[in-house]
């Protein structure tokens, strides 16, 4: 099986030692740095915003994978590109004009992703799949780290994969929430390409070893 792209989520890191945490990711086998932006409106939690993302970028040697869990993301897409986002993902549930939002992200030179909440059907992607670089399948309800993985995700990945193949899209499938060494293999077998992991990585005594384990699954 091909190796997954691993994206540790800094939401679970020690914010008081952000430079150390980013250096750990730099020195690890991780591929991307997952940056969770929460506005307290789209999701019932507030994480951090532009200045912290800019601080992460200052130390990052890997692409920033920015996951916007915010309403009206079009208001902030350009600002996140300016502070260093390489990939920007917006939620289908938060966008009234998703196609326009995707064009906006691509025009800024970023890769564009679309995220689906656990209850959102895959068919929502049908008319946008050919235009995007990434589909983010939420495997927990967005808003918090360290939640329990929702098993319906496997089925959902298979449908997204079928849609990608049928449309000739080059989009990769990213899974976010409750990822660990136990479910990683089945996720990849179902068609996932990118694994986000927060708590599983940062609560470990040796996070680099955990990242290497996910990479080698
Ligand atoms: C949840 C966030 C996730 C979160 C994942 O709303 O989008 O990226 O950080 O954390 P774990 O891996 O702990 O579920
Ligand atoms: Zn996320």
Automatic annotation (TrEMBL):
The keyword Zinc appears for this protein: yes
Pfam family membership, one: Ribul_P_3_epim
Keywords: Carbohydrate metabolism, Cobalt, Isomerase, Manganese, Metal-binding, Zinc
Enzymatic reactions: D-ribulose 5-phosphate = D-xylulose 5-phosphate
Any one Gene Ontology BP term: pentose-phosphate shunt
Major enzyme class: isomerase
GO molecular function: D-ribulose-phosphate 3-epimerase activity; metal ion binding
Stored InterPro entries: Aldolase_TIM, Ribul_P_3_epim, Ribul_P_3_epim-like, RibuloseP-bd_barrel
GO cellular component, one term: cytoplasm
Comment on bound cofactor: Binds 1 divalent metal cation per subunit.
Key word Zinc present: yes
Pathway stated in the Swiss-Prot or TrEMBL entry: Carbohydrate degradation
Residues given in the record as a divalent metal cation binding sites: 34, 36, 67, 176
Cofactors that this protein relies on: Mn(2+); Zn(2+); Fe(2+); Co(2+)
Active site positions, chain numbering: 36, 176
EC numbers: 5.1.3.1
Residues annotated for substrate binding in this entry: 9, 67, 176-178
SUPFAM superfamilies (UniProt xref): Ribulose-phoshate binding barrel
Its biological purpose: Catalyzes the reversible epimerization of D-ribulose 5-phosphate to D-xylulose 5-phosphate.
Family: Belongs to the ribulose-phosphate 3-epimerase family.
Protein name: Ribulose-phosphate 3-epimerase
